[in-house]
Design a protein that fits this description.
heterotrimer, A alpha/beta (399), B alpha+beta (530), C mainly alpha (370), A: 399 residues, alpha/beta, GMP Synthetase, Chain A, domain 3, 15 helices
Chain lengths: 399, 530, 370
């Protein structure tokens, strides 16, 4: 009896292994997609996938030089359908766990992006570590066609430069899916996405010629931020205004801006720390926002001749000039967003939500209207700390 | 179904046992009084073996006391026999006034035989056993008893260095095949009178001497009792190596894990004895066993204790890390590249994908083939003579491996994984455990290939469950990890400094806990004075 | 005695802790946050307090029904007929918890680790080690828990610390925005799933070697497990925010996916999966064991091991059947499970204790009368 039970167990066990492994994916069954672009063509979604050719990137075998990536595209009624349709073109199934960039076409963005995002959040292979951007004045698929030098895989280049420019220059903003969804859902904050443009000719850009010359004819570039209301694209911010957004949302790690010295020429300040405190309060059933922006900076570049940086008074003067400029910039930008876009991208609503939750309950349904006339007071506190390697500029001595 | 049933039953059925009685209960056949009868009986029993030497003579020049000695040429020390027995008996003149009339037996024993090791012999079986062990038998005419004189002397290997357990710092002596030499080596390390030695013969045909040693007062008497019980239970025709005994007394046979530790080094045995373990020595093999054994003993080497504490700790941690690598590395590689590619960083993934572009086999088959190839190489290098072994290992690994990668049969990453696995397994000090890990690696690979990481987790849980259920002579195999004992942790992953190791492992003995009461070293004050 | 093993107090604590973590670490964040939003952490604390009280009640059990398991106690308290009926119902409870947890295991594995694999093979593999653990006895399970615990705790700490850069304290504000009621509703969920499940230990208490330390062991285990659940939930809210936590089916897995330290400690979500498999394994084994042991005691068998294999096979076939799809399972879980667990985790022990105390009072009365 015991023998029979043993046999039965063995048979069951063998069955487990012999019937095949269901979810096996060998490495060479995968088409690793690093970039996905979604455009809307009429009623249908066109999905384009930038797929890596591993042997071109890392292979020891030579062979004729091909492009390191391939673009596959297909059209379908839903995003999921279009993605699967790509298998009629690609020899392997598209694998999106290693996605670096998701480009949404401008037309799609104007119609509303929420319809495509659910697939990205529901599919089990997707993660949260890629960025989402909007293609400006071009189709998403075209942005995935441009070859880049220095970084062989264009989607990775898009990823890295977005990250770096947010850290170093701050007119761009890295947005991941989680953040985007949270902001879409929240009534107190509307999302933004960075825009990417193509400088040059797409047809040249996708050939090897683009990376063979010193000065690439076609380039991918990031422009300002796209403003959304609910999930529709309604407008663009220029780089200066985008910086304000990043200041207010505490995303600035380092940037540069210039101020004018008394004689009219320019001094560059290198910002190494920026922190904004946004406070919300209610006055007689009316919400109010007050912003306090702290900036720590160093002197980066001096073009003025008669600037005595060794005198503390000069520094104080410069700080005051900077304060004026920044306050003005903030106020103009906020006004523009309030009146032209009527969309609370800064998250003032969320601030009110946290500070006066009871009042928020009444305000939240009409927030976009209330936002238009929301009084916002801005105070900045800019400090100049170091001077770099030299004290006064040599320009002073030049005659 | 019936056919299968019958086949299985046939394989597992125990044949009826022949002789139910263990060796020590054979009927005792007493000696006869007539010397000639005894000589004939002995010669007949041994079939007139040509290495049996029989020498009859008269004791003393005046008296006609007839006697005969027997010894096995090659096993007994012929020169000593001639010097101390024959010379003293044949030439010396006994002084009969010392003993009552006609008691030649006690005359010989008390006044004439100038030898140290003397016992009475009254029946044939033990007499023959002693004879064949190298002792000298002296029989007197007219007496139904004789003497067994210990005069063993045969050629053995001599105390040399251990081939398998080498240390950089520490004694290099190793046990030999002679039981007496081995016990002497242990006695040299422990001079405590409480170190007791008990011997018995096991094996119906081989009559191998098996000794146990323990330090009374430290060891748990229950364990000694258990060892006796299990040794007594053995009924086998021959013991050729301690491995036979190990299999016959271990707690569980259906486990890949070793539950009895063995070593060639006397210092390791001495340390084990001082921890309250029992040492089992088998004549004819230099491998000595210790019981009870826990898992941690297999991850310790003698050198850990001779080097400094911090070095010892780091090396120990490395070993534990290596056991994981050795067991899981190929499985993890297969699982991740086949099921969980999202775990790899993108650049690594692309690199691996590029390598696998031309490879025809799925990752699992590749891994299996490489592991098998390694096992073959390993076994082959053990059998080969030393000189060829070197070149084959280089040929095997470098040339064949590189050639296989270039030919596109395997991917370079797989080769690296297999090589790392193999090297990690050599870090494990106990060869037994390395074998276990080698065995377990293959089922883990199967699980990884079918169920990915989930399969690996299931496999690991199953192995841990199994290890936790093992006992070695009543001591849980996984102590001091489980049941957890904080004080004993000082000798598992870590090797605490000498002054901190002042208790013995708890579960092995509860009585004599304190080793030594020493305090941490104090920094001396300023020794130089102005 | 059907079970010859002995548990030490430390092993008991560890098993309680691992059971409390059990599958709660997977399913609690979404369901509790659904009601309490960003204040779910308060729910957890409330639940923990209730849990500690419940554990204290369980520990009274040993005084009033010494050396008896739950099933034996039911039979003693209620007599033959009523006792058998109640025992069967309790056994059904254990069985359903086992199957439910197994279903969660397979759902998780299919969703996140091995998409495309059907349920039976996954569960067959899983049930094999559960059967193995049950057959080896409670002592081996305790030891296994002891071995895995340091790893689980260290992993948990590493993962929590690694995600600190991505936490944002504002996500947990405003506090008590909608008042205390949603928080209480959330705490009911958490109490039921997480803190009342240790009732299963009533089947195991007679086998603990140091009976007088049982209370301390149980309480400590509950505290430790509860702390880990609390931390998991709070981290979930701090990193994802209440909205995503509710929407994600396995938010902790999502969080683990986001860990990125120094550009190389990334993509480590498999470590979390490892941790969960272990705690789920402990939970399933404990309930499975309770069922088998209880059934053997009810049927007065000499040996409980024979039941393991058939029960295991039945469970593997049951698991896909109990709910046709995920939504069904979730709905039942959210709406009806709470009452089921409260009945067996709270009401039944209370009744048993009541009966015992009543009997004692009665016998004292009789004694004093004599």
């Amino acid at each position: 009896m015991k023998r029979r039970a043993l046999l039965l167990c063995v048979v069951i066990l063998i069955q487990l292994f012999v019937t095949g492994c269901w979810s096996r994916r060998e490495l060479n069954d995968l088409a690793i997609a690093v970039g996905i672009g979604i455009d809307k063509i009429g009623d249908q979604y066109q999905v384009s996938a930038q797929v890596v050719l591993p042997s071109q990137i890392a292979g020891s075998k030579g062979g004729s030089p091909q492009s390191p990536v391939n673009l596959y595209k297909a059209t379908g009624n839903t995003v999921y359908e279009a993605l699967r349709k790509i298998t009629t073109l690609s020899p392997r199934k598209i694998y999106i766990s290693h996605l670096r960039i998701l480009v949404l076409g401008e037309d799609l963005a104007k119609e509303g992006i929420s319809s495509v995002l659910d697939f990205m959040s529901r599919d089990t292979d997707t993660r949260n570590d890629y960025f989402i951007v909007v293609a400006k004045d071009t189709k998403a698929e075209d942005t995935l066609k441009i070859l880049t030098s220095l970084e062989k895989i264009p989607a990775v280049r898009l990823f890295s430069s977005l990250e770096t420019s947010e850290k170093q220059w701050a007119p761009t903003s890295t947005v991941t899916l989680g953040t985007l969804i949270t902001e879409l859902v929240s009534k107190g904050k509307n999302p933004v996405l960075t825009g990417v443009v193509i400088n040059g000719n797409v047809d040249v850009g996708q050939t090897q010629k683009n990376v063979e010359t010193v000065d690439s004819p076609t380039e991918l570039k990031y422009s300002g931020l796209a403003v959304f209301k609910e999930d529709k694209l309604i407008g663009w911010l220029n780089p200066e205004e985008s910086k304000v957004y990043n200041y207010l949302t505490n995303k600035v790690k380092s940037t540069v801006f210039y101020i004018q010295c008394p004689e009219g020429k320019k001094v560059s300040l290198d910002v190494f720390e920026a922190h904004s405190k946004i406070k919300g309060s209610m006055h007689n059933d009316n919400p109010e926002i007050s912003i306090e922006q702290h900036i720590e900076s160093d002197i980066g570049e001096v073009q003025c001749r008669n600037l005595d940086l060794t005198n503390p008074k000069t520094i104080t003067e410069l700080e005051q000039i900077a304060n004026h400029k920044v306050v003005h910039l903030f106020e103009t930008t906020i006004k523009k967003v309030q009146q032209e876009f009527k969309s609370d991208i800064f998250g003032f609503g969320e601030v009110i939500h946290r500070s006066n939750p009871q009042a928020w309950k009444k305000l939240k349904d009409n927030w976009d209207q209330t936002f238009v006339n929301l009084p916002v007071s801005v105070k900045t506190d800019i400090k100049i700390r170091q001077l770099g390697k030299v004290t006064n500029s040599f320009l002073e001595e030049m005659k | 179904m019936g056919f299968l049933n019958r086949t299985i039953t046939k394989i597992f059925k125990n044949p009826t046992l022949g002789h139910p009685n263990p060796t020590r209960e054979l009927p005792k056949e007493p000696l006869k009084e007539n010397l000639q009868d005894n000589i004939e009986h002995i010669k007949k029993t041994l079939g007139n073996s040509t290495d049996l030497v029989v020498r009859d003579f008269f004791i003393g020049s005046k008296h006609k006391i007839k006697a005969a000695i027997f010894y096995t040429d090659g096993l007994a020390d012929s020169k000593a026999i001639q010097d101390f027995i024959l010379e003293s008996l044949v030439l010396e003149i006994p002084d009969l006034s010392l003993v009552p009339e006609n008691d030649n037996y006690s005359l010989l024993k008390n006044h004439m035989l100038t030898v140290g090791d003397i016992k009475d012999a009254t029946e044939f079986h033990s007499l023959l056993t002693s004879l064949l062990s190298g002792d000298v038998i002296l029989l007197l005419d007219g007496y139904a008893k004789g003497f067994t004189i210990g005069m063993r002397g045969w050629k053995d290997r001599g105390v040399s260095e251990s081939a398998t357990e080498t240390v950089i710092r520490g004694p290099k002596e190793a046990f030999t095949e002679s039981l007496r030499t081995n016990t002497a080596l242990i006695r040299r390390k422990i001079k405590d009178p409480n170190l007791w030695l008990e011997t018995q013969q096991i094996g119906r045909i081989t009559q191998t001497d098996v000794s146990i040693m323990y330090i009374k007062g430290i060891v748990d008497d229950g364990i000694v009792q258990e060892v006796h019980t299990r040794l007594d239970r053995i009924d086998i025709d021959g013991i050729l190596e301690s491995g036979y005994i190990e299999e016959l007394i271990e707690d569980e046979t259906y486990t890949p894990f070793p539950t009895i530790h063995h070593t060639e080094r006397p210092d390791v045995i001495a340390a084990a004895l001082m921890e309250g373990k029992v040492a089992i020595l088998v004549d004819g093999t230099p491998i000595v066993m210790t019981v009870p054994t826990t898992f941690v003993s297999f991850m310790q080497t003698a050198e850990d204790y001779y080097q400094r504490a911090d070095v010892g700790t780091l090396v120990r941690m490395l070993r534990y890390f290596c056991i994981f690598i050795s067991l899981l590395a190929p499985s993890l590689y297969v699982a991740i590249t086949t099921f969980h590619q999202e775990m790899l960083p993108t650049t690594l993934l692309i690199s691996l994908a590029a390598q696998r572009e031309g490879v025809p086999l799925p990752a699992f088959i590749e891994a299996l083939l490489m592991e098998l190839a390694f096992e073959i190489l390993r076994e082959a290098s053990v059998r080969m003579p030393q000189t060829i072994a070197q070149s084959v290992s280089i040929v095997g690994t470098l040339v064949i491996g590189t050639a296989a990668v270039d030919a596109g049969i395997v991917s370079a990453a797989m080769l690296i994984v297999v090589a790392v696995t193999a090297i990690s397994s050599f870090v494990l000090p106990a060869f037994d455990l390395a074998l276990t890990v080698r065995m377990l690696r293959f089922p883990m690979m199967f699980l990884a290939a079918s169920f990915g990481l989930f399969g690996i987790i299931i496999g690991v849980i199953a192995i841990v469950l199994h290890m936790c259920s093992l006992r070695s002579f009543g001591v849980p195999y996984m102590s001091p990890f489980a049941p957890f004992n904080l004080a004993d942790q000082k000798d598992t992953f870590f090797r605490m400094p000498r002054w901190a190791m002042f208790t013995r492992p708890k579960l092995i003995n509860q009585k004599n806990m304190v080793r030594v009461k020493s305090t941490p070293p104090e920094k001396p004050g300023d020794l130089t004075e102005e | 005695m059907l079970e010859k093993g002995k548990l030490s107090t430390r092993q008991l604590t560890i098993l309680v802790m691992l059971l409390t973590i059990g599958d709660s670490i997977l399913v609690i964040p979404p369901s509790t946050t659904h009601y309490a939003r960003q204040n779910a952490w308060i729910s957890t604390l409330i639940g923990m307090v209730i849990g500690l009280l419940a554990i204290y009640m369980y520990s009274r059990f040993i005084k009033l029904y010494p050396k008896l398991t739950l099933i034996e106690a039911i039979q003693k308290a209620f007599g033959k007929w009523l006792g058998t009926v109640l025992s069967l119902m309790t056994l059904m409870f254990f069985l359903i918890v086992t199957v439910g947890s197994m279903r969660e295991v397979s759902d998780f594995v299919i969703a996140e680790m091995l998409p495309g694999t059907p349920i039976p093979p996954i569960l067959t593999l899983f049930i094999l080690i559960v059967i193995m653990a049950t057959r080896l006895g409670i002592e081996v399970l305790g030891r296994t828990g002891e071995i895995f615990t340091p790893m689980i705790i260290i992993l948990f700490l590493i993962l929590t610390v690694a995600i600190v850069p991505q936490m944002d304290i504002v996500r947990i504000l405003p506090i008590l925005e909608d008042g205390i009621k949603p928080v209480l509703r959330g705490s009911i969920s958490i109490t039921a799933y997480t803190f009342l499940e240790p009732v299963v230990f009533l089947m195991v208490l007679p086998y603990v070697s140091q009976q007088q330390k049982i209370t301390k062991g149980l309480l400590l285990g509950c505290l430790l497990g509860g702390t880990i659940i609390f931390l998991t939930l709070t981290v979930s809210i701090l990193v994802l925010g209440p909205d995503l936590t509710t929407r994600d089916i396995y938010p902790s897995y999502n969080i683990a996916r986001r860990i990125s330290i120094g550009g190389f400690f990334e993509r480590v979500e498999a470590l979390i999966a490892l941790q969960w498999m272990l705690t789920l394994f402990i939970k399933v084994t404990l309930f499975f064991y309770a069922f088998i042991l209880g059934l053997s005691q009810l049927l007065k068998l000499k040996e409980y091991r024979v039941l393991t294999l058939p029960t295991g096979l039945i469970l593997v076939s049951l698991a896909p059947i109990i709910a046709p799809n995920f939504t069904y399972y979730n709905t039942v879980f959210d709406n009806y499970w709470v009452y089921y667990v409260i009945t067996f985790g709270l009401v039944l022990p209370l009744v048993l204790l009541g009966v015992a105390m009543f009997r004692r009072a009665l016998s004292k009365d009789l004694k004093s009368q004599n």
